[in-house]
Amino acid sequence: MTDKLTHADLQQFTGGTGHWYRHNLVRGITYTDGVKYMAERAGAYWLIDEIALAQIGEPRVKAEPFQAWKLRVADSKATLTCDDGNGNIVFSKAIDFTDFPLDQIDIWVEEGDGRVILLPCEH
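Above: the chain's sequence. Below: its structure in token form.
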């Protein structure tokens, strides 16, 4: 059972992060406090994994220094897309089942010292 998560909960994470968390499988990926909070509250470490694994397994994703990821949920199914920040889709995946508690979430990936997964409000 996941804790309830709201869009307002995520808005508390602004102006960066206090800690960086290294992804267990893709060591060149870190993520922020806000992303960790989202994953814990929503039981959605799988979402971090999907984004991190795409960095090494999807050439079009890997080629983008900035990525805007969108998870859209309806009727316990979802679509996960990645675009280049200008609306050009470089990756899309259907999720056959999810209990993700929000109808949608946006997550960014930025290049820096490696790649960082963050909430837009943390930029």
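The mean pLDDT is 95.
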